[in-house]
Amino acid sequence: MAERSTLVEGLRAYRLIAGMWVRSGMTYRTSFVFTVFGNLLMTGLDFVSILLMFSHVDSLGGWSLPEIALLYGLSATAFGVADMLLGSMNVLGSRMRDGSFDVLLVRPAPVLAQVGADRFAVRRLGRVTQGALVLGWALVSVDVDWSVPKVLLVPVMLVSGAAIFSAVFVAGAAFQIFAQDAAEVQNAFTYGGTTLLQYPPTVFGKDLVRGATFMLPLAFVNWVPAAYVLDRPYPVGLPGWAAFASPLVAVGCCLLAGLAWRTGLRSYRSTGS
């Protein structure tokens, strides 16, 4: 009951803080529109680079352009949602250095909600929109014999992928508490992770694919379930049921990230004098 009350309180605090930043960002409407549009164009350059590659080749690692677009759209959209909700976690190190993190600890609201909603930026919708556009094109263009499980698996991948990336953001913030910053390390697993998943596993070494499957299970964002949708072999010889394991992996990642966050808060010793 206490944990449920804390969760409700955290969601309420997040909503209030995020709403404050949204109202602030919407004060100058024209600037907001141009910022979102610019963000959409900047993130779209990633897919442009893939299009440029396919202007010289017919396939990449044995995957066609629509198939890679499916991977890209799933990864970019799921990451975009997580980045919009918890992208501010990567500035935790700077808060610890300037002492403002200590202020959050004494406020009557869950610290995770305060850090996650800090400087909530609706402009990040540009990344989500761009990823969703590519995903929509891929779903129409890819050669797939659609069935009910395959259709249902697409939204499951998006929700599970966003939860997995959110867990990585929280775990990375917990690591920053122990390491006293190291935001670059966190970015390597968040922004670097989504870039990794935008390409098929066949272009990477087996050890890297194993690490992204069993150590930091980013492969369950799109590689594994997309292999079922596209009727391709699963990475590293996983069993057939693994395609539907993304929700379980997401729950496990969130639980571990929550444990890491609590452990980090307990070990925090302030900035000193």
UniProtKB/TrEMBL annotation:
Keyword annotations of the record: Membrane, Transmembrane, Transmembrane helix
InterPro entries: ABC-2_transporter-like
Membrane is among the record's keywords: yes
Entry superkingdom: Bacteria
Pfam families listed in its UniProt record: ABC2_membrane_6
TM annotation in the entry: 32-57, 69-87, 128-146, 152-175, 208-229, 241-261
Name of the protein: ABC transporter permease
